[in-house]
Every structure is written in C-alpha cells, then in structure tokens.
Amino acid sequence: MNNIPTVMILFGGSGDLAHRKIYPALFNLYRRNVIRDNFAVIGTARRPWSHEYLREQVAAAVHESIPDVDEAQLTEFAGHFYYQSHDVTNVEHYVTLKRLAQELDERYECGGNRIFYMAMAPSFFGTIAEHIADQHLTGSGFNRLVVEKPFGTDLASAEVLNRQIQSSFAEDQVFRIDHYLGKEMVQNILPLRFGNSLIKKVWNADMVKNVQVTLAERLGVEARGGYYDNSGALRDMVQNHILQIITLLAMPEPKDLSDKAIHAAKEDLLASLRVPGEQAVRDNFVRGQYLGTENTFEYVKEPNVAEDSKTETYVAGRVEFGRGPLAGVPIYFRTGKEMREKKTRVDLVLKNEPGLYGDKAQADTITIEIDPANQIYFRLNGKTIAGSDLRPEKLRYRFSENEQAEVPDGYERLIHDVFVNDSTNFTKWEELKRYWEFVDAIEAAWQEENAAGGKPVKYRPYCMGPDTSKIFADPKDGWIYQ
Ligand code: NAD
After folding, report:
1. How many CB atoms lie within 10 A of CB 379?
2. Which residue's CA is the nearest one to ligand 1's atom 41?
3. DSSP letters spanning 316-330
4. What is the pTM of this model?
5. Catalytic: 241?
6. What is the rounded distance in angstroms from the CA atom of residue 96 to the CA atom of residue 85?
7. CA distances for 321 relative to 247, 324, 325, 366, 474, angstroms
C-alpha cells in the first residue's frame, strides 16, 4: 500500500525514542512511498519548539541513523512535520491539538485518518488516552493508537490503563509495541517452524528435551537507575520480550497466517501457561544483582538506585505450558545486565536417541541467533573424510553482507505495520494479561522472600550471571550457550 493518508500525533516528539527510532523509521517509509504526499506529523512535547526547529531535529535524527540521504527529499519530508507545545495534563492543549490536526487533515487530504503514538513516560499514557476521548480527538477515518512499553507495572495497573484506552479505542485499534517482535530473526520463528516439514516434525514434546532462551545485555543500568530500580529485569525484559519469544516458540500452528489466526494460536497456548506458586518460584527461578569492578559501580551504588535495593538485574527461570506441541517441555530463560556479551538467542535441545554412535552423537541443538547476528543453525553429523569417526558440521541459514544491510530496523517494520493495519507483531490484551499474571506471581513470591530477609544473589559482572543449576529439571542439563 502506498501513500496512506494519515495525520500522526506523536506524544513525546522531543524524546530519545522519537529521535533515534521513530523519525528515521518514518523517513524510510517515506522513501518507500508508504507515506508520501498525504501525511502530516504533529510532534508534541513540553518544550516551546517551533515547527522549523522540530524539522531541524527530524533532519538531524535522520542524518544520525541513515547514510546517503537525498537532501532535497529529506527537506520535503521534514516539511510534513509540525510542532505543538503540549502539556499532557492540560485539557486546553488537546483542544488546540485537535484544531491543528483538523487543519492539517484538510491541507494534506488525510480523510480523517489518525495515528496516535504514545512515546513518552508510561505514567502519562492513561491521561493522554482519557483526554483523547473527552476532547474527541479521534478522526472520522481510521483511528489507531500505538503504545510504547511498559504497559502497566503489574496486572492491576495494566487493567486500569487498558480501560482508559478503551474509552476511545477498540482492541483492534490498539498497537502495543514490543520492539523484539520487529526483529528479523524473531519474525523468522514461524517460517522456521511451519515452513520446513523436517523441523515441524521434530518440534514437539517427543523430540525436544528443553528450550533455552538467553537475552544477555553487556551494559549496566547507565543513566536509567531511577527507572530501573522500580522495574527490575523481570518486568523490564521477561514480561514482554522473553515471554513473547517463548510464545512464538511454543504456540500451536495457526489456522492461517492472518494476524487474527496468529493471535488466536497464541491465546490458546497462553491459556495453559503454568503460573508458578511460591514453592515453584523458589525452586525454578533465580534472581541476581551485579557487583562492581574497579571501573564500574556495583548495582546498589549506581546513581538513583537505593543502597538497600533488592531489585534484580538478572533473572533466570522455567516456563511450562499444558498445551501446544511443547506441552510439558521445560523452557528455560535468563536475562541480565552486565553479562559477558550482548546476545539474544534460542537453543532448542533435542532428545538424544541412543544409537549406533552412542555418546559421540551428542544432543542436537537448533539455534536461532537474534542479536547481534541474524542466523539459524543446527549440527549435522557426517564422517571424517579419511576415517569413520563422526564429523559434526553446522548447517546455517544466514545473510550475506548486502542482505544484512537490507534488514530494516524493528521500529521501521512495526510502524509500517501500523500504517497497513497489520497487528501480527503487536501484543494483544489477552496475551499481556497472561504475561502479567505470570510475572505478578513471581514478584509476589519475591516480596514474601524479601520480607523474610531474602534478596537477590550477587553475581560477578561481565560473566554469565549467578549459579542457575537448580532451575534445570534434569540435573545433567545446563545452558548450551555458556
Ligand atoms: P524521553 O524522556 O527521552 O522522552 C519523553 C518525552 O515526553 C519528551 O518529548 C518530553 O518532552 C515529553 N514529556 C514529558 N513530560 C511531558 C508532559 N507533562 N507533557 C508533554 N510532554 C511531556 O523518553 P524516551 O526514551 O523517548 O521513551 C519514551 C517511551 O518509549 C517510554 O515509554 C519508553 O519506555 C519507550 N521506549 C524507549 C526506548 C528508547 O530507546 N528510548 C526503547 C524502547 C521503549
């Protein structure tokens, strides 16, 4: 679809996300003609910027992210941006915003279509949603709402936010962003599972011993200590990215490839997600907190972090489902800050069939590398050329350098999907609700532990985190990626 007529209202137009991700993504969509003549963007934030200043910022943001920009095209693109100084809590400002949106709608012939993008502190999402409703900001064409993460801080707050949003938007108009769903290899999980009969045949509880998901970050909390200390790894990474990846790995085959069918398959799986009780949390989850080095702070010494903080910067655990092809198969995950290297990957460990070659034919693994490389590989055994010993080789699915350069940024892909109304790679409310139920149960058990003097275990930074051996169902198992 080309030249989709839209007025986009971006709350948080002076923010980091808008600068680093949203403006470059919109420019690429402009270059691809997804948006062209009939679009306008209203950037809003508190600062008293002018239209001209916003346009300069947009151009600077594009230059910082995209090489080889056609200057005339960039100027033309930036000309579609308008700035509205706006305090989200001031009702009057919504009236002005509505008037500007209507004016631009007429000027650019946008047919009453609106995309509202909430790219600011999550504590404002509810207020904005309510004012969109009470000041009737929605247009006479299509109306879509893009919401950044985190969507609530627990199930109760997510429910409140969802009700506020429902005052103006139906569920099929809401696009909850999880930028991991925009990643190339995350989007390759369904083609891998359902586009290869060989893989499809082994992707089940008879053949799979366990699944391992690692999402390791090299960085610490940096300047985000204040935010992070109220969140922690469980809410920041597991509630969204890790559980979404796990859902894609374990869901049953959807009826077809439509967004509705894919979400139906996810919901079917999630209805059987086993929410752990206190004992299961003690047995199957580990939380950690990083120590310092000569040059880096221990977590509790980071700026804006409480000295007695019990917030986890690392969490590992076990997820199980009662339905789907991997019903009953342990799915292990871990995520942490200040780990040895930045890496996101999935390892699917197959059961070892005792056979002619005994232990020499080690457990086979299918690996999906999501970050920093984009690749899938598994091991195939042949024989050494001169002898009869086993010779393992990796079979890889990967991109050439040129192809790699063509992989779009996750944000570009997801914003494109909002324009074309494809909700496949966004989080639906029913999914989110289950994720919060799971996370809240773990959080509640940890609060109990804290009250009894418990706390996260300390781990050495820039290694692979604390001892997690207790979470493995079979003590002989361990992480494939060490
Ligand atoms: P930011 O602090 O850089 O920007 C916040 C924006 O909100 C600014 O434009 C600011 O002027 C505006 N704002 C603040 N208070 C306001 C008020 N009262 N009225 C009007 N405007 C106000 O934040 P960010 O890093 O851009 O993050 C925005 C959202 O995106 C958050 O939900 C965050 O979790 C999410 N997110 C950010 C990133 C990232 O890389 N920055 C990545 C993933 C998700």
Report:
1. 16
2. 17
3. EEEE-BSSSTTTT--
4. 0.96
5. yes
6. 10
7. 10, 7, 9, 20, 18
Measured in degrees and rounded to the nearest 5, phi and psi for residue 42 equal: -105, 115
Q: CA of 91: how far to CAs of 13, 98, 105, 196, 210, in Å?
A: 18, 11, 21, 54, 53
Contact 229, 348 (CB under 8 A): no
SS3 state at 382:
strand
pLDDT of residue 363: 67
Pair of tokens at residue 225:
């200590």
Count of residues in the chain: 482
124 CA from centroid of ligand 1 (Å): 10
For the chain, 482 residues long, the average pLDDT of each consecutive 10-residue run is: 95 96 98 97 95 98 96 98 94 95 98 97 93 94 96 97 94 97 98 97 97 98 94 97 98 98 98 97 98 96 97 98 98 98 97 82 88 93 91 93 93 98 98 98 98 97 97 94 94
Q: Determine which one of 19, 93, 241, 263 is catalytic.
A: 241
The atom of ligand 1 lying closest to the CA of 89 is 18
Q: Which of 120, 128, 149, 241 to mutate to test the pocket of ligand 1 (most atoms within 8 A of CB)?
A: 120
Pocket test for ligand 1, best of 9, 10, 14, 17 (most atoms within 8 A of CB): 17
Sign of CA dihedral 241, 286, 480, 355: negative
Show the domains of the chain with their CATH numbers. Answer: 6-177 (3.40.50.720), 181-408+428-471 (3.30.360.10)
Ligand 1 centroid to residue 366 C-alpha, Å: 38
* Helix (DSSP H) and strand (DSSP E) numbers for the chain: 18, 15
Single-letter residue type at 349: V
H or E stretch at 65: helix 51-65
d(CA 369, CA 133): 43
Those residues with Cβ within 8 angstroms of residue 221's Cβ, 6 or more apart along the chain or in another chain: 228, 229, 299, 302, 305, 313, 337
pLDDT at residue 364 in the model: 86
Annotated binding site: 46, 87-88, 149, 179, 183, 217, 236, 337, 342
The sheet carrying 81-85 orders its strands as 81-85, 39-45, 6-11, 114-118, 143-147, 174-176
pLDDT confidence of residue 360: 78
Rounded Cα–Cα distance for residues 226 and 230 (Å): 7
